[in-house]
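Translate sequence into structure tokens.
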Amino acid sequence: QLQLVESGGGLVQPGGSLKLSCVVPGFTLDGYYIGWFRQAPGKEREGVSCIGRQDGSTNYADSVKGRFTISRDNARNTVYLQMNSLKPEDTAVYYCAADVRLFGRCLLSTTPYNFWGQGTQVTVSS
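Result follows.
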């Protein structure tokens, strides 16, 4: 069973930065598409960013383009989400997830993702 563990959330002021980590112990990360999602209270879970299996191709939601950067360190089995210029509307629980498809681009829809972490809270407030 694939397990994903997020960390790095916290409280930050508007304009600040956070770096989230998603670790997948015991598995080779480049065998999976990895996505970052978020869910704010009363809202549906939405895709933030994702990264491809071996080519490292990336995709971003329009709301975070230019502010967030996804990357992977296969040696550490870790995917990162660097979040800069944070806004109050970025406040949410952030989840990472794994998609086991073999072909295609990574997707920002929750549908293809089979395994999910427990989430980490990000709060942007002054």
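Note: Residues 8 and 20 are 4 Å apart (CA to CA).
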